[in-house]
Amino acid sequence: MTSSAIAKVHLMRHGEVHNPRRIVYGRLPEYHLSELGQKMVRLSAERFKEWADQGANIVYLACSPLTRTQESAAPITELLGLEAHHDPRVIEADNYFEGLHVDKKELLNNPKHWLKMYNPLRPSWGEPFKAQVARMAEATRDAARIAYEIGGPGAEAIIVSHQLPIWMARRSAEGKFLPHDPRSRQCNLASITTFEFSDLEGKNRPTVSYCEPAASLYSGIIQLPGS
């Protein structure tokens, strides 16, 4: 894990959530990891431990304040000895459909939802993409600075967050349009999206890499928006 980056920030998505009713749970409290989700985040934590054993200087851990991200951060705390700092800036995107069981039939046949679907480029049903980018960029830069202050050049931080905010941060970092087909998101459960910063002032875009330590556990999983 050698690199010329001045700092790295690993954006890790939480593991699978126990959600048998297939609710868009968004920012709702008390949605816990499933048994499979716990296995997923353990694999990601073990990947971080492997990197640390190979010389990575991982010195800071932050997470969204939601239950599923706190539980996903727990094995990292166990294996790396890092306290998880809650950062509301990396929380799930706000979503009008939160708390509902939403499928295509429900969306098309219920007129009360139509006004929330008129502009998918914003999107009109939730927190604007640009707002997500702004808060995620600020939180990620701050994590890079904290890591640098603690560990010096090359130090690394971990942020445990959610699919859409992580994906928005990545698309922005890569200079891509924010509106997208949700099916195209490369941000699977317990995945790790890594930003490597060459400076801490935002003069240059970070370089981005991606890995899926829990890929062996993905078979048959149904993923919902707002997760």
Automatic annotation (TrEMBL):
Q: GO terms for molecular function, please? A: phosphatase activity
Q: What is this protein called?
A: Fructose 2,6-bisphosphatase
Cited Gene3D superfamilies: Phosphoglycerate mutase-like
Q: Which Pfam families match?
A: His_Phos_1 (PF00300)
Q: What taxonomic classification does the UniProt entry list for its organism?
A: Bacteria, Bacillati, Actinomycetota, Actinomycetes, Micrococcales
Q: Which domain of life is it from?
A: Bacteria
Cellular component (GO) terms are: cytoplasm
Species for this entry: Rothia aerolata
